[in-house]
Amino acid sequence: KNQVEQSPQSLIILEGKNCTLQCNYTVSPFSNLRWYKQDTGRGPVSLTIMTFSENTKSNGRYTATLDADTKQSSLHITASQLSDSASYICVVSGLKTNAGKSTFGDGTTLTVKP
Amino acid sequence: DGGITQSPKYLFRKEGQNVTLSCEQNLNHDAMYWYRQDPGQGLRLIYYSQIVNDFQKGDIAEGYSVSREKKESFPLTVTSAQKNPTAFYLCASSIDRASGGAIEQFFGPGTRLTVL
Question: Could you tell me how many CB contacts below 8 A there are between chain A and chain B?
Fold first, then answer.
């Protein structure tokens, strides 16, 4: 069964600090991995998309890495801001499946405190 | 939230009633999806449609129904058969079908349904 596991479940950091969120998956054969940010009560917004051949991708202060051999990804947030407080969701798609059949992680809830 | 709109933002339903959640997109996307999100859980797929007049059941389709009469619209009906309908419902769309690759999904703002 395809699975996506995220850790930690929740995280509290001080404003200005860096943090790293983890995503491990068992989806095979692998197609792509996406990170989303979801503010409370709103829809997820895409941060990064990576395919098999990509091992790092940045979007401003967000940098995602992918190790397809170990089936692990991380999302690094640099110089955190209060607006980074949200849930971060890792989503993995397999080959020959559309985006709707992707496997979603349960998310990591990040709280940034002043 | 891209070019996807969902309405209403909040919806209250009495037990035994059917309700319909609206989802409209102006992105010219072929595929549309409905997900359910419960606290602390990942998104679960209810239904998806890859083309007009065609749709497929997702992982938790029981108690739900959909239609896809127009490319821009994919309404979801929560029927009285759905025993635990209180949840946050998200609609999404994407440009591609079942071709793999880096398909990006765009999500709507969501509808929070509460059964009274």
Answer: 88
Helix (H) or strand (E) holding B66: strand B64-66
Cross-chain residue pair B100–A31, CB shorter than 8 Å: yes
CB contact under 8 A, A46 and B88: no
Span A40-62, pLDDT tens digits: 999 999 999 998 889 999 999 99
Between CA A36 and CA A20 the distance in angstroms is: 14
State how far the Cα of B9 lies from the Cα of B12, in Å rounded to an integer: 10
- How far apart are the C-alpha atoms of A109 and A13, rounded to whole Å? 11
Provide the token pair at B110.
């969501």
Residue B109, pLDDT above cutoff 80: yes
State the sign of the Cα–Cα–Cα–Cα dihedral B19, B25, B28, B30: negative
The maximal CA–CA distance of chain B, rounded, in angstroms, is 42
Pick from B84, B82, B83: which is nearest to B66 by CA?
B82
